[in-house]
Fold this sequence. Notes:
By secondary structure, the chain is α/β, with parallel strands linked by helices. It is 35% helix and 17% strand. The chain contains twelve helices and 15 strands. It has helices spanning 9-27, 53-62, 78-88, 98-103, 119-128, 143-155, 171-181, 217-234, 369-383, 395-409, 417-436, 454-473, and strands at residues 44-49, 68-74, 93-95, 109-112, 132-136, 161-164, 188-195, 240-246, 259-265, 271-277, 293-299, 302-307, 317-322, 353-355, 440-441. The strands form two sheets. The protein has a nine-stranded mixed sheet. The structure holds nicotinamide-adenine-dinucleotide (NAD). Nicotinamide-adenine-dinucleotide binds at residues 49-55, 74-77, 80, 98, 113-116, 118, 136-137, 164, 166, 208, 221.
Amino acid sequence: MSDQQEPTRRDVIKTAAVVGAVAAAAAAFEGPRIQTVKAANDQVAFGIIGAGGRGSYLLKHLLNVSNGHCVAVCDIQQDKLDRAADIIGTNPTKYTDYRELLANKQVDAVIIAVPLFAHFPITRDTLQAGKHTFCEKSIVFQPYEIHALRALAAQYPKQVLQVGLQRRYSKFYALAKEMTDKGLLGDVTHIHAQWHRNPGWVMNGFNWRLYNEYSGGLAAELASHQIDVADWIFGSGPEYVIGVGGLDTWKDGRDVYDNIQLIYKYPKNQKLVYSSITTNSHLPYLGGTRPEFGECIMGTGAALEITVGDGQSTMPTGLWYKEPHHVETKPAAGKEGAAAAGASYALTAGSKALPLLLDSDQLGPDDSFLTREMKFARRWLYSKGIMTSDEDVNPVETELTSFFNDSKTGGHPKADVEVGLRDSTAVILSNICMQQERRVYFKEIETMGTDEKPEAYAADFSKRDSSYRQSLTAKHKVNV
Ligand SMILES: NC(=O)c1ccc[n+]([C@@H]2O[C@H](COP(=O)([O-])OP(=O)(O)OC[C@H]3O[C@@H](n4cnc5c(N)ncnc54)[C@H](O)[C@@H]3O)[C@@H](O)[C@H]2O)c1
């Protein structure tokens, strides 16, 4: 194979240099100290509101996070509350009303993992109670909340406000961003992203995410992560979105789409092409070794395939493919009828995949003989496609460690309020574009929801909240 297809030794060295820079930048990420930690042992005392699927997942990972200490848990469902306290094992105070948790002076920081429709009111109250705040993605649900949260965040600049977009805390995604910014992919013009499932979101009891009343559907639950990756790589939010959504397979009482196809056009003519379906889970990246979700970042010089993994049995990983320099095409015969036989074809094969290497794979001056041998063996396995390099720490644990660290030091989160609001704007407008079957411009958000009165908003929220609470027990609403 020619060196046009094979990544050269120079390419590898260039990647390694970028990786070194990322690691150094991460180590230097420390802001001025402006708040005092109240918990013992330099740990941040935190409470968690919402201990369902995500909340309990976070608590399991919080067991591996040493700079936070759980002192309080809250859930409106007693079984979830008890399970949460058992998972974390710190004998936290249990609450069923989150306002009581917020009144607990011992709590310095709060993690919010409630359904989407309740994110804003609880985030607002948490900030107003003086706590550092981590809220799961997508940070807000409605246009009114975009404007209200931006204004509120400006009022509390000394409190951390972080959104749960964990790809921002992945070493592989940081490396992809560095490689893009340093031109290693040439001009990045397109990103393809998918989150495919099979079966997807099967109804099994009441599930708030299947109803537009409480949820932003696939756009909020899945696409939000990957739109954020595109925003990050492209360096801005999109200019407009077009798309088609359908509720075509899962006719079980839900009203959110079960498949969405979206195209986002960015200001420099870059595009994100997005797909989420619930009838097939194949992922055509990373040699077909991972299912469901991932992104392919395409530039004139190379392509990168990345995924974050499921965070349990699979971790973030990535492959890059150097672009073959000369792709010649044979012109079609020029006559109709000859097209099938004379279709144009590429004369060169695609390039071999090169695994992205993190610092754990780089050779160090202090490595023992055995460590060096192991690193060489691992790299050889990577080069043969037998193994790919994985991230060593789950980005969920990195984002939570970073949240507590920022709470202590006054540092600024990577997934900050503007990142979160840009992402929520994309989710809201994606749904509008599919529902109204029109191209939606992102500048439209500037006037959406601005005339809503806080009292009307509060009344609307309280209606949603009480119907959600009734539905939690009223199984008849659901066709299983
Ligand atoms: N970052 C990620 O990768 C990721 C993954 C999954 C879910 N999430 C997000 O996490 C959030 C929660 O999702 P989930 O799957 O855990 O939902 P869930 O329904 O499993 O859990 C929500 C919990 O919140 C509780 N709750 C609801 N209202 C409450 C209130 N007012 N006070 C206290 N508790 C309340 C419910 O009783 C329930 O236990 C969603 O916004 C979702 O998008 C993020």
